[in-house]
Structures are given as structure tokens and as C-alpha cells.
Design a protein that fits this description.
- The complex is a heterodimer of chains A (115) and B (116).
- Chain A is an all-beta fold and 115 residues long.
- Chain A contains no helices and eleven strands.
- In chain A, strands 2, 4, 5, 6, 9, 10 and 11 form a seven-stranded mixed beta sheet that branches.
- The relative contact order of chain A is 0.33.
- Chain B is mainly β.
- Helices cover 0% and strands 55% of the residues of chain B.
- Chain B is built from no helices and twelve strands.
- In chain B, strands 2, 5, 6, 10, 11 and 12 form a six-stranded mixed beta sheet that branches.
- The N and C termini of chain B lie far apart (41 Å).
- The chains are: A mainly beta (115), B mainly beta (116).
- The interface between A and B is medium-sized, with 20 and 21 residues.
Chain lengths: 115, 116
């Protein structure tokens, strides 16, 4: 299993540009999450999904949109990037049953810089 | 609002010293508790977790944590640190977010620097 993968690993954007970050997991997990990590702030939840076709807002959703059209993929979109969105973005997923229930597995992260 | 607090922002230790990192949360109900580690430039990896049962939990790489319900604490310990333990450590707690669902809430992290 590849686990949780994220594309791209690095990206530099100019203010106002748009982009989509892709998260994919091959563990058949129901729940998926997008977090951002900023120095001294820990990880903050942006959006999450409890299943295919469903999404919900987390702690810091403004300026982001998400979609979960397939169970294995969770997309994070920035429609008009701002410098405040410079961060490291982590995707995570977890199953809801079995030995690993409620344990989140993290992807390698995407480092985004907005100039 | 429910929250997770990590008391130390940066801890500096010499090799072989003992480690204890504090974590407190503010919620009176049943919780799931986690410690994650992030080595420089890498993603988060699970060190250990507590769901129920024995409040003393042993994890990977010689780490352990004790859940003390009366103190709302889940402190991470290691008797003898190594240079390779240099990393950032995050405590996380599954807290209710409304409408019957739970979200993993992270502390702000503690950077550990181990000096050879």
C-alpha cells in the first residue's frame, strides 16, 4: 500500500492564482481531512469528509474549497491564493472500524508559498 | 471551547536525559488521545495512542504516555533520549465538534532538541 499520497510536494503561486491539491489514499478509509501547519500553531483543520460525496468545514475553512467525488481522493482548492495561505498542507485519513479506527494516517505534505 | 495545551514550546536536553512533555485537554467526556512525532522535513507519524484500558501506554522508540483522567492529562515520557529524537511532538485529542461528530484537535507542538 502507498498509504496517503499528496500531489504536488511543492508549489509557488502568485497572489490571485488558483490551484488544486490532490490527496489520495489506497486504504479504503471513510474519513479524510485537510490540515494546514504553521509555525507555533500546530495543525489546524481546514475541511474534512466523512464519506464519498460529503464534505464539512473545519476550524479554518475560509478561502478553501474541497471535493470528494471518489472515496479514495480528497481535493483541496484555492480559488484565489493569498500570502496568508502560505503554509504546509497535510492530508490525513482514517477508517471508522477495526483496529485502526479513529487513528489518522498522514500524507507527506505539500509546501505552498504564495508571493 | 475545548482545547489541547502543550506546556513547553521548546525543550533542549542532553543525550541520556529523561524527557517528559506535558499535554492537557479541556473536555470532561470520553476521549481518544494521541501523540504524534514530526521529524525535520517529514510528515506526522503516530508514536502512541490511548483509547481505553491501561492508562499507561507504550509506544514506538521507547516512548510511553500516562493518561490521568482526573488531571485531564496525557504526558509523554522517555527515560533516556537520543540525538535522533530531535523532532517536534504533537499531542492530539478527539474532541466533539457538534452534531455527534468528533474532530482531532492538536496542541501547538513541542520542539525537542537533543544535544549530543
Amino acid at each position: 500500500n502507498a498509504g496517503v499520497t499528496q500531489t504536488p510536494k511543492f508549489r509557488v503561486l502568485k497572489t490571485g492564482q488558483s490551484m488544486t491539491l490532490l490527496c489520495a489514499q489506497d486504504m479504503n478509509h471513510e474519513y479524510m481531512y485537510w490540515y494546514r501547519q504553521d509555525p507555533g500553531m500546530g495543525l489546524r483543520l481546514i475541511h474534512y469528509s466523512v464519506g464519498e460525496g460529503t464534505t464539512a468545514k473545519g476550524e479554518v475553512p475560509d478561502g478553501y474549497n474541497v471535493s470528494r467525488l471518489k472515496k479514495q481522493n480528497f481535493l483541496l482548492g484555492l480559488e484565489s491564493a493569498a500570502p496568508s495561505q502560505t503554509s504546509v498542507y497535510f492530508c490525513a485519513s482514517n477508517p471508522t472500524s477495526g483496529r485502526w479506527r479513529n487513528e489518522q494516517f498522514f500524507g507527506p505534505g505539500t509546501r505552498l508559498t504564495v508571493l | 471551547a475545548q482545547s489541547v495545551s502543550q506546556h513547553n514550546h521548546h525543550v533542549i536536553l542532553s543525550e541520556a536525559a529523561s524527557l517528559e512533555l506535558g499535554c492537557n485537554y479541556s473536555y470532561g467526556g470520553t476521549v481518544n488521545l494521541f501523540w504524534y512525532v514530526q521529524y525535520p522535513g517529514q510528515h506526522l507519524q503516530l508514536l502512541l495512542k490511548y483509547f481505553s484500558g491501561d492508562p499507561l501506554v507504550k509506544g514506538i522508540k521507547g516512548f510511553e504516555a500516562e493518561f490521568i483522567k482526573s488531571k485531564f492529562s496525557f504526558n509523554l515520557r522517555k527515560p533516556s533520549v537520543q540525538w535522533s529524537d530531535t523532532a517536534e511532538y504533537f499531542c492530539a485529542v478527539n474532541l466533539p465538534s457538534g452534531a455527534g461528530s468528533y474532530q482531532l484537535t492538536f496542541g501547538k507542538g513541542t520542539k525537542l532538541s537533543v544535544i549530543p
